[in-house]
Amino acid sequence: MCVRRFVRTPCVCRCSFTPLTLLFALGFASLPVVINTWPFRNATAAAWSVLQSGGSVLDAVEKGCARCEIEQCDGSVGYGGSPDESGETTLDALIMNGDNMEVGAVADLRRIKNAIGVARAVMEFTDHTLLVGESASVFAENMGFVAEDLTTNKSVNIFAQWLKGNCQPNYRKNVFPDPSKSCGPYKPRVTLEQKQRVWQGNTRSHDTIGMIALDQDGHVAAATSTNGLTHKVPGRVGDSPVVGAGAYADSSAGAAAATGDGDVMMRFLPSYLAVELMRAGADPSAACKTAISRIKRHYSEFFGAIICANTTGHYGAACNKAPGLTQFKYMVSNSESDTPLLKSVDCF
Length: 348
Fold this sequence. Notes:
The protein has 348 residues and is an alpha+beta fold. The protein has helices spanning 19-25, 41-52, 57-71, 115-125, 133-142, 153-164, 262-265, 270-279, 284-296; strands spanning 33-37, 91-97, 103-109, 130-132, 175-176, 187-188, 209-214, 220-226, 247-250, 254-260, 304-310, 315-319, 327-334, 341-346. Helices cover 27% and strands 22% of the residues. One of its GO terms (biological process) is proteolysis.
C-alpha cells in the first residue's frame, strides 16, 4: 500500500490506485449494488442488468423478484409451491420506493403469477398500500394481468402426501380433533389448556426472496416475493408483504429485507428496525444482528435471517442459529465483479 507523507517534497510512489480501489482504501463501498436473500443467482443477475442498462432501482428489484417467480426459486417463490391446507398456492409480494416512501403490496393473491408486478401496480395505480385475497386478484385482472392456474403437478403431489400423512405438519393449536394426529375441519377446544407442541415444519418451507437495490445517485428500493408457508391455514399472511417486516427502504438511510418464519418475524418489524439503526450510525452487519437479536430474546430457535445495506453501499447480513440454519447464504452484485457473488454469514 502506498503511504503519502505530508512533507514539502513531492511524494514519489511506485504503486497506483484505480478509482475503485481508492474508494475502498478510503472506506467507501461500491455503488450501485444489488443484494438478495438466498443463492438466487439469476434473480441477482436480472436486477443488476437493469441497473447496468440505466434502469431504476424500482425496475431492478421488480425484475429480480419476477425472475424468481418465473423460475419458482427453491419452490418457495412463485406458482406451483407451498400449497395451503386446501391445496391452493397463493402469493405475497411487496415493493417499496425509498425516495418517496411509497409502497405497493399484495397478499393471498390467487391466479396471478406475477405477484411483484401486481404489487407495483398497487403502488402506481392506487392510493392504497396493501390489497389482499380475491379482491387483489380481481384488481390484477382489471390492470391487465393474465389469470392462470397456480397449481402444478408438484404442488398437487405435496398436498396429496400431506393428506396421506394425516395433515402433518400443520399450524393449528388449541383445537379438536387433535391437530398432531388428524386433519380438520377443526373447532376450538373448550379447555384453555395448551399442550406443548414440537414444530415439525420444513425449515425451507417459508423462504422468501428479499431484494435491495441502490444506485449511484442515492436511490434505494426494496422488494419481496413468496408463496408463503407450506400447509398454512388458508388466508394466512406472513411478513413478506408487510412494510417494515418483510422489507423497508429509505433513501436517507438504507434498506433491509427479511426471510424466514414470518409469523414470528413480523411481530418485530426487523427490516424497519435495521434501517433505523443504520440511520443512527450502525454499520449494516451490526444493524442486521441487532434486529435478529431483538427477535431471539423471545423466540430463541426461530428460523430467520436479514440482509441490510446503507446508502454508501456497505452491506451485511445476520441469521439466527436454528435447526436447519447454521449459515445463511445471500447474493451480491456490484462493480467488484462482473458476476453475482455468493456471500455467507455464520448464524449466532
